[in-house]
Design brief:
By secondary structure, this protein is α+β, with helices and mostly antiparallel strands. Helices cover 28% and strands 31% of the residues. It has four helices and seven strands. β3 and β4 form a beta hairpin.
Length: 138
């Protein structure tokens, strides 16, 4: 089943991030490969440069204390439906105790709620997604 978050029913805070451009493509690919290795994903699609350059795409970057990119989220915006979709998150897992995956999705809920979006679509349901405030099956 697919799922989404009704952003009006959330109360999260944003964590520090930066909006990236496709100039970060090489670093994004590297993080994605590290993520696939840690998660033991046998078959993953590449991150396509054209995805990063699409007009409705936002790339959210998360940085470590040395200002190195350690994670990214690829978000598609659909203003006609007052919605956005979290397509891909990946991080390098250099510091697993950060729980950056959990923290980033909550921060993204706060960001898109602040920007006036109604829903953040999350793809297929998973137990960790069901823990989110405002979670709904679609």
């Amino acid at each position: 089943m697919y799922c989404r978050v009704c952003l009006a029913n959330t109360n999260y805070r944003e964590i520090p991030y930066a909006l990236l451009t496709s100039d970060w493509y090489r670093e994004i690919q590297l993080i994605y490969k590290q993520y696939a290795t840690v998660k033991q994903l046998n078959s993953v699609l590449p991150i396509f440069l054209e995805e990063l350059e699409a007009a409705n795409t936002e790339i959210i970057g998360y940085f470590d204390s040395n200002n190195n990119l350690e994670a990214f989220s690829l978000i598609y915006l659909y203003p006609s439906q007052n919605s956005c979709m979290a397509d891909q998150f990946a991080w390098n897992y250099k510091d697993p105790a950060k729980k950056l995956g959990y923290r980033s999705i909550r921060s993204e809920c706060a960001r898109y709620k602040r920007l006036g979006f109604q829903y953040l679509y999350l793809g297929e349901s998973a137990p960790y997604k069901q823990e989110l405030q405002g979670f709904e099956f679609v």
